[in-house]
Amino acid sequence: MSLDPATVRRxxxxxRIGIDESDLPALQRExxxxxxxxxxxxxxxxxxxxxxxxxxxxxxxxxxxxVTDGDAREAVLSxxxxxxxxxxxxxxxxx
Amino acid sequence: MMLTELTIAAAQGGxxxxxxxxxxxxxxxxxxxxxxxxxxxxxxxVTSEQALDAARRADAILAGGGDxxxxxxxxxxxxxxxxxxxxxxxxxxxxLEDFVPPYESTVTANLLADGAVFVGKTNLDEFAMGSxxxxxxxxxxxNPWKRAGDAETVLVPGGSSGGSAAAxxxxxxxxxxxxxxxxxxxxxxxxxxIAGIKPTYGRCSRWGTIAFASSLDQAGPMARTVEDCAIxxxxxxxxxxxxxxxxxxAVPDYRAACGRxxxxxxxxxxxxxxxxxxxxxxxxxxxxxxxxxxxAGCEIVEVSLPYTKYGLATYYIxxxxxxxxxxxxxxxxxxGRRVPGASLDELYEATRREGFGAEVRxxxxxxTYVLSAGYYDAYYLRAQxxxxxxxxxxxxxxxxxxxxxxxxxxxxxxxxxxKMDDPVQMYLNDVFTVPASMxxxxxxxxxxxxxxxxxxxxxxxxxxxxxxxxVFAAASxxxxxxxxxxxxxVRAEVV
Lengths: 95, 495
What we know:
The structure holds 2 protein chains of 2 kinds. Chain A has helices at residues 5-14, 24-38, 73-77. Chain A is mainly α.
């Protein structure tokens, strides 16, 4: 599979990473280089193989349904780039 | 006495016998950082004042007699990927240039509880994505080693834990933390002539460590001896309820394991690691390591891990996929850099364009693509299945052998500027380290000798899940046989 400029633009849009038209040729070349190289996985027979989603040594644990953390509003907001009182701010999203 | 030349094990004794104070020990390292960090760029943030204060507190504890915690007064570097309470933590990214965590990672909290003194936050590839420490937003790290007869050429320290490796090799810290996703502890350890272990996935808590690829990321120690790595891992490891992948299993006595006899240990030599085009000196170091382990009483067994050659390609689907998901949190709203935009999407796009460097952007885009509708099965699901085959390779091998021995990297440290035109060429540095990461098994690099150009070469010992003890035992035997006493050209005691 080879990525065309429109696909690179679409991926960048999905990832919410701004790109300039002038970035496209280099990105397209680099991504296609990597994709071409990982095509080698197509030769592996994966019939009847389960996907590995983790190393499987940790069991999901149950715990009491109680509050274990919290009351840390100041700490949580301490790195906000543009906090307003106890809120994060974003550009206007509703007209 | 050159305090910067001591091992952690020796310093523990010296501090307790009051041969020198923690303030002197930490002060010697702080002075070395002052003198050399401008050149090596091994630290992004130096915390001299806090370190000296902590050293004075350590001296008070040591003076009180009784049992001081194991690492009391020991100066360490902390990879700038571990959140440290009140100390800026950048992940070497412009995105987190001013990020000051209001909490401490579990691994660093464990080290602090054992008395360790942090001299600073070490440089790395941005968000730990890289193999040469050239993608840091805070500049490249210089490897303190030089090619024989060539004092000019600047070599890379490896990556992503390149600042940690350079700091320990140059004697700016006695040990350091690293993280390893596909080789980020072992490969820089090899390039800088030190030891480093990636423990079993689940052994060290990931809580408070900035995430790259969560199913692979694992913290581990880097130090100048295998025993020092054992001492540090003893403190770093342990179950943590705040990491759902942390495994509730007792942490054995790693230091004791270093002295274990290897009589009867079976060492596997995987045929597939004899890759085409491997330099003769790498092959020779490997053969030497095999001979050393045989002399130590090991039985050498040829084994086959047939899916090895698919490790890297699998990694470069799985890791970017997880990276694209993890790094979605950097949105310019809640923490980190923010670049204003007229709409929310414009804010996101401008922030992420400006905040991330080229390699991080590339991996996010690749990960977004392999996870996107229509391509998920062809790439991501296929990679997860191949990953399972790679893991089964290791499980099969460990039915007959106790550890595996391989080279750590396919070359010694290369020069800044080399291998930089093509991302795939850079990725090939991790060919020997990635498979163990995919399987989650522990693996350690230990210095074995020098290349013809006078640069360190590491050997890798890979063990069964949660059997770091056999890894430490075999690595210690290699270390004793190698008698590696070479030191880098740039180091604390060279004025």
